[in-house]
Sequence to fold (631 residues):
Amino acid sequence: MHNNNIKNNPLFVLGSILFGIKTYIIYRFLFDIELDNFMQELILLINPFVSSFLFFSLSVWYKKHSQQMKFIRYSSLIGTIILYINLVFYRSFTDFITIPQLFQLDNMGDLGSSIFSLIRLYDLILIVDVVVIWYLSGKKQHTMSVDYSKRKKRMTLALSLLLLIGNFILAEIERPQLFTRAFDREYLVKNIGLFNYHIYDLALNTKVKTQRVFADDNQLTEIKEYVNNKQSDVQSELFGLAKGKNLIFISAESLQNFVINNKVNGKEITPFLNSLVEDEDTFYFNNFYHQAMQGKTSDSEFLAENSLYPLPRGAAFFTHSQNEYNALPEILKEKANYSSAVFHANNKSFWNRDEMYKSLGYDRYYGEQAFQITEENSIGWGLKDKPFFEQSIKYLQSKSQPFYTKFITLTNHFPYELNEEDRSIEPYDSNSQTLNNYFPTVRYTDEAIEQFFAQLKDAGLYENSIIVIMGDHYGISENHNKAMSQYLGKDQITPYDHVQLQRVPLFIHVPGSGKGEVISRVAGQIDIKPTLLSLMGIKNERDIYFGNNLFINDRKGFVALRNGDFISENYLYTEGVCYDRQSGETIVDKNDLDNETENPCGPIQEKILKELSYSDEIVYGDLFRYANFMK
Ligand code: GP9
Ligand code: MN
Fold:
């Protein structure tokens, strides 16, 4: 039985150290976590050991040595899996997984070829500690397990909790109100570690779930008041410009604004879209920001059609598809008898679209099954954009008019694969394959849209339609900043530049209108719904939404990004710094902000936080079930 071996090397301690080192390596070198000062470095260094000790030391409560070993073994394995899933996810989204996203894992499966591009050979070193722990737990059970007295067990637990509290205190000093503000997952992870973050996230998720249960209609009254104060019902001169016309909306995958009127290897990237910039029937917005969050494309759809903000975590398409909404397709149907459909050659349940589209009021969703997809006509995520548009025309012709149809392109999706024969321009040359390959696929989509215009003309649908083209969200993440700065000819991509890179193009093409112009005022995806409704000549006074009609002068004048950053006509705010929007000069930095300093970003920031939380209240509380918009 228990002999009195001297057990000065318990596996739970050694295991904590090994697992801690591995975790630290991941935090410090594989995630791109920004560290501003020594304190942050220190917290990041100690946290992995605190967390792993907290967990591994629980093993001492098992009496049986074999169970102690088993516990340590599986802890190291499961812990590693959690770390690795986060790492792969991070490489794609520069973000950490949230609980709602775990329920979207079938989405991840669809990443297909992109998953492989996220896995590296050197990832194998991340299982070294697991192998060592498994080996020792088998071979050295006698010398590396412990027989602690009750007192010693309690002391071990107390020690681990003390370490955790110490970690939290340091975190709170470094980042006051870390838990209450929690806008930014990176802050959480760098201060309390990935595992504690997941526990926190779980708690938050439970809270959100209970919110609907406790929501009531009084909340809506307050929100209505806010919305009415902010929005004037001034009709624009362009009200009804496209009345009764078909509305064709193209959501252009990962299309960022920096490619417009720009060149790569001396060649134009988007000749067709560039021609629209000049076109007399097209409004082009060159300061239009995407506002999507974790829900990517689906968030941009959510923003555009509801004029509500996406959620700070998860995708509303997933978590709140059963809510009551008052979305664009539904309003167009109720008020002007439009039929509606979405075209997207991807699996129907991706982003839970099949469910959500019903709630948004769509009549029909032409998903993957509606298209003829073969080896030859697909690449990357599926059907290429050119055959996609081509095959859609017949469906479009069969629609009852007027219709509202949305087309979601796919070819220009990470990792930007394209066959040689589809390449009209050559890739860029930098250390980022992602950025290099981005240009040819962008060009491919540009050509696909050009062809689509021609096909609409051939089908006799063009004259009586308005066509909107909007980039859904960024395509080049900050992981490629180095290559991006090379392309843009800058020393580096600053936080200011990063926000400016969140601009995506917006084109509104009204054939025969002759009113086109380039519009530079600050705008965002949240503005799409009121803008289009006004162009379609639909009054929508009782609605609740947060955007602005882009064709009126009396507007809010700011665009809130979902992480709390914002862009106003004069300022741009990100990472605690208030910049002059035009020049990019710093006006106020969080580090030298004291009571004396005037911070012009402050008041806007307050408004934004209020607005974001109102929007969240609506979604979390499913508040529109209490509203009556149609009367
Ligand atoms: C998938 C397509 C791409 O159907 O919309 O989604 P994304 O990854 O961009 O959110
Ligand atoms: Mn997308």
Q: What stands out?
A: The first helix runs from residue 11 to 30. The first strand starts at residue 246 and ends at 252. Residues 1-6 have pLDDT under 50 and may be disordered. The chain is about 45% helix and 10% strand.
